Amino acid sequence: MKLKLKTSELKDFLDEKVNLYNNPKFIESDPIQIPHQFSKKEDIEIAAFLAATIAWGNRKSIIKNANRMMELLDHSPFEFIMQHEESDLEKLSPFVHRTFNGNDFMQFVESLQHLYKNHNGLEAVFSKYAEKDSLQKSIHQFKNVFFEIPHLKRTQKHVSDPLKNSAAKRINMYLRWMIRNDNNGVDFGIWKSLSPSQLSCPLDVHSGNVARKLGLLTRKQNDGKALAELDKALRKLDPTDPVKYDFALFGLGVFESF
Questions:
Q1: What dihedral angle (degrees, nearest 10) is formed by the CA atoms of 139, 44, 185, 244?
Q2: Which residue(s) pair with 96 in the sheet?
Q3: What distance, in Å, lies between the first and last C-alpha atoms of the chain?
Q4: What does the DSSP 8-state code read for residue 187?
């Protein structure tokens, strides 16, 4: 079924859903709860990056395994990443979430250390390559920097590349968490060098299906081209904060089986 709504009606409908779902209660069942355990900027952004990286599959197991990651990093992710010795990495090797394993985890720790030591950290890398109205090229460049040190080839698949037509759902979600300040205590808004207007919606099965039913998206695959189409539609509804509608699309799909 497709809902036929005028643009103004659609905006009102979605704005109402944003108000319903963009609140602290949302955190209880979402991986964003992982970075909410921390108060230091670097801890928040690293915890968020790792949690977002494994955010596919069952939400309970995502949250359980992301908490396990924090435990393995001694609940001080930034300190562990910057100060670990080779021998400290051994305890990460049994970790597994779907196809992300202990070797990938160790590689991520090394690559994150490289970013903070040589590129001023996560925010600086994404900011450096940002375009005025998009961060998709920025994600592509981030992946290059992340893997410019010796690395396992298998680990590359855990960082998406929008320039290869990926919707890059998990990284777009991560960027929403870091950049968007919703004043409701869900998204962090700690990256001041970037603007919510540059963000893209984390496109997954739920948000994609709802977007199609609402006429925001016609493309059938959830890929980079679909993301560009959805971005365009959401920017018409709110050019300054287009991805607030992620809460509406996701909430409608997951909580209301829309």
A1: 10
A2: 101
A3: 10
A4: S
Give Cα 124 to chain centroid, integer Å: 17
Q: For 130-145, how does the pLDDT look when each residue is reduced to its tens digit (9 = 90+)? A: 999 999 999 999 999 9
CA atoms within 13 A on the CB side of 47: 27
Q: How far apart are CA 137 and CA 140, in angstroms?
A: 5
Cβ atoms 137, 175 nearer than 8 A: no
Asked if residue 230 lies in contact with residue 211, where contact means CB atoms within 8 angstroms, the answer is yes
Residue with tokens 């493309």: 219
- Coil, strand or helix at 15: helix
> In percent, how much of the chain has pLDDT > 70?
99
Identity of the residue numbered 178: M
**Nearest one of 194, 216, 71, 85 to 133, comparing CA atoms:** 194
Outline where DSSP puts E strands in the chain: 96-97, 100-101
Question: Is the full-model pTM beyond 0.85?
Answer: yes
Structure tokens at 236: 């018409």
Residues 247 and 258: their CA atoms lie apart, in Å, by 13
For residue 139, the number of C-alpha atoms closer than 13 Å in the C-beta half-sphere is 27
Question: Maximum Cα–Cα distance for the chain, whole Å?
Answer: 60
Check: CB of residue 75 under 8 Å from CB of residue 67.
no
User: How many whole angstroms separate alpha carbon 51 and alpha carbon 175?
Assistant: 12
Has residue 1 got a pLDDT over 70? no
